[in-house]
Amino acid sequence: MKIAAAQSIITSDIRENGRTIRELIVQAATQGARLVNFCEGALSGYAKAQISSPESWLDLDWTTHDAELAAIAETCKRHNIFAVIGSAHALPAPPPPCNSQYIISDTGDLTGRYDKRFLSNTELSGWYTPGIHPVTFEVDGYHFGCLTCIEVQFPELWMEYERLGVDVILFSSYGIRSFFQIALRAHAGFNCLWISGATPAQTAHEGPAGIIGPHGKVIAHCAAEQRSQLAFATLDRNDPLFDEALHKAKPWRRLARQGDIYRDKRIKSEG
Fold it and tell me: For the chain, which residues score pLDDT lower than 50?
């Protein structure tokens, strides 16, 4: 199964962002991808960047936002591809929106939404409302989960998804700087997961969008240039490159975390 990580240009114009997203979805589908994920705020714009203040959410054209989301869903249906779109999600007043990832299926249905749970101190000061639950979904026998930006700093979230049986985490961020790049490789290697990291084109100089294998190494990445583009990789559990990570390390670590193998040894030793 082929997937793509998007590195898209984000503007303050929701219609323009929608056009960019649809063009990249078509490009991904044309090259055989079954899923493509986009960065934080890819459609709506992101706080402190395209959204200048918390009060600016009041001026956001949510009708246009929803229309663009519907057009994106129609593109997914037409081209038989899943897409995960980073964007704000409006809540009833007075709370600010959630920082979300919309999950759109290859039938054009909105099948789920992940709301970022761990917000920064700044994001909590009127920019966003935190989410509550992890979210998983399946495509062609592979299980996916979603995390966003600063959540890279909370290992328990990545371990939670590993316990839920997730194969791939779709990471949406407004920038994947050096520290994030290192942390993502570590999370992939520790939990034996693929990670698809999406970022805006205008922050690509900090670290490009790309895909990391379950062995903790980058297997595909975009160029560090300010232009919209995609990184592609194929998910294959039987790829010899991932044999040790998926078929040796992953099951052994699950046994180790359960602890029974160590308790048995300790009892024999004490006896």
Answer: none
